[in-house]
Design goal:
Blueprint: H1 3-7, H2 17-21, E1 27-32, E2 37-42, E3 53-59, H3 61-82, E4 101-102
Length: 103
């Protein structure tokens, strides 16, 4: 990256091949403390009584709020292009991780 690009506040971000594959998740468990938000991404398979956390992201409250705003904006753009995202009824999954939200 040239010095002029760095002076304009641009960041060079690398994405290796393994990370680019991504991780599928159909359950997010969100916990928080006074200083951080913890997002655990889980894959639950039908008929399998056990599931593992596949990825954990830890954010400051400020970054969690920015993520929420970015998701809202991107969902709005998606729905403007492709139509409303329909939510389906999901069966309740018994989880006991303390106070948490699910997405």
């Amino acid at each position: 990256m040239s010095d002029s690009n760095q002076q304009q506040g641009q960041i060079n971000i690398e994405l290796d091949e393994k990370t680019a594959e991504g991780i599928y998740s159909n359950l997010a468990i969100i916990n928080h403390s006074q200083s951080e938000f913890v997002l655990d991404f889980v894959t639950i398979m039908p008929g399998v009584p056990k599931a593992k956390v596949k990825s954990r992201i830890i954010l400051t409250p400020q970054h969690a709020k920015r993520l929420l705003g970015a998701l809202k904006e991107n969902i709005h753009r998606f729905e403007t292009t492709h139509g409303e995202i329909k939510e389906s009824d999901q069966p309740q999954i018994p989880l006991n991780f303390g106070p948490a939200g699910q997405a």
